[in-house]
Specification:
Length: about 55
């Protein structure tokens, strides 16, 4: 894996921390990885699989 740095609004960080506190995810990084994986699945990989293209 590669390390990236990103800036998030405080409400996002508080929400991530709540998910970790409630043990939905083991840590912030895993929660963010899963969110990105879900977004890529929907926005990139599924579109490519189904032949969808973004219309400008």
């Amino acid at each position: 894996m590669k390390l990236i740095t990103l800036h998030l609004p405080e409400p996002y960080i508080r929400a991530l921390d709540q998910l970790v506190t409630e043990q939905f995810y083991p840590n912030r990084a895993e929660a963010i990885r899963e969110a990105i994986r879900d977004m890529l699945t929907t926005e990139v990989w599924e579109r490519k699989k189904n032949g969808w293209r973004k219309v400008n």
